[in-house]
Design a protein that fits this description.
This protein has one domain (about 5-80): Fe-S cluster assembly (FSCA) (GMP Synthetase, Chain A, domain 3, 2-Layer Sandwich). It contains two helices and three strands. The protein has helices at about 5-25, 55-70, and strands at about 25-35, 40-45, 75-80. The chain has a three-stranded mixed beta sheet. Strand 2 (about 40-45), helix 2 and strand 3 form a beta-alpha-beta unit. Helix 1 (about 5-25) packs across helix 2 (about 55-70).
């Protein structure tokens, strides 16, 4: 397994621990890609999509937890 695949799997594992909390509020998160610089791209869906609190969820929740668990990650960005 190369480094990018390993990083992607580790990020997916962390998102798997976050996902139940998002789903409890009617939302979800999907890993789109991890680029070579360590930026993670995710798609918020369900109630998270278009929610006024989505940016807060992304920065204070998803990004914070992913970066704590996978230090190589430089940031998390939402895509449509």
């Amino acid at each position: 397994m190369d480094t990018t695949q390993d990083l992607r799997q580790r990020v997916e594992d962390v998102l798997g621990t976050i996902r139940p909390y998002l789903r409890a509020d009617g939302g979800d998160v999907e890993l789109v890609k991890v680029d070579d610089e360590g930026t993670v791209f995710v798609r918020l869906s369900g109630a998270c999509r278009g929610c006024p609190g989505a940016l807060m969820t992304l920065r204070a929740g998803i990004e914070r937890i992913v970066r704590e668990q996978v230090p190589e990650v430089r940031g998390v960005e939402a895509v449509r």
